[in-house]
Amino acid sequence: MAVSDLPYYGALGSGFFKQEHLNVTMVLAPPNVAITALSKGEIQFMDSPGNALEGASRGLPMKMVFSAWARAPWTVVGKTQYNSLAELKGKTIGTNQVGSTPYLYLQAALKNAGLTMTDVKIVSSPGTANTYGQLLAGTLDAAVVSPPFDIMAGDKGFHVVQRIGDALKLPYIGAGANTSFLSDHRPQAVAFLRALMNSDKYLKTHPQEATDLVVKYVSSPPDVAKKAVAEMLPTLSDTGEGSLEGVQQAIAIQEALTNTKVTVTPEQMVDYGPLHEALGKS
Question: Which CATH number is 75-163 given?
Fold first, then answer.
């Protein structure tokens, strides 16, 4: 569990799903497992719109329906002698596996700094918590992490080398949905998205309650949770919509990874109709 799932924690822990008469259970699953489960209707939603776009690009029955954050919080933290990505040339950087979201953000950020992935030594791990552990163990010069790990790294003597959340516009956390569920259970889909948007609105004006939710669901120390919430809350989306530019970037990434032309357009991979209905726009 991560701070990025805060809208879900609010909807669960502060009763917004219950207000909509929904019984929602979150389960942890690797991306490939979640994509398969969503395509088969074994689950109705996933919290990663990026994974939903990946599935949709392969012709699977899913769409992105919600984007929770205006920008991604990926941050390169490292030893205090490094103050820019350019200074990490030839150094060892830890991140998630090839093709993962933090990997892609690092790749784009290095390109913006005039570097490529071959200009640094990449150490891949199964997840951000593993990467953070490697940083603490002293095997990395820098690491790509998200809250609360950037806060925790600061408390351990590391510092922010560069925030890279603007390197791409990929949707970060939100919701992807099974298309059959969207058509066959429209009221429930609308209620689900309404609960998430109500959670967003509530969290923005209740930072202490947001902090308590992070402590509860992420098991962060209260002081770390407070700092992470202060960092993240301003970037909660006001609309719940990700940009089509970001969807196009996701398509381009899938084409590069699979060496296959994606024939689905960005507009065909997204359905904001239920979200608009939830917000009273239709």
Answer: 3.40.190.10
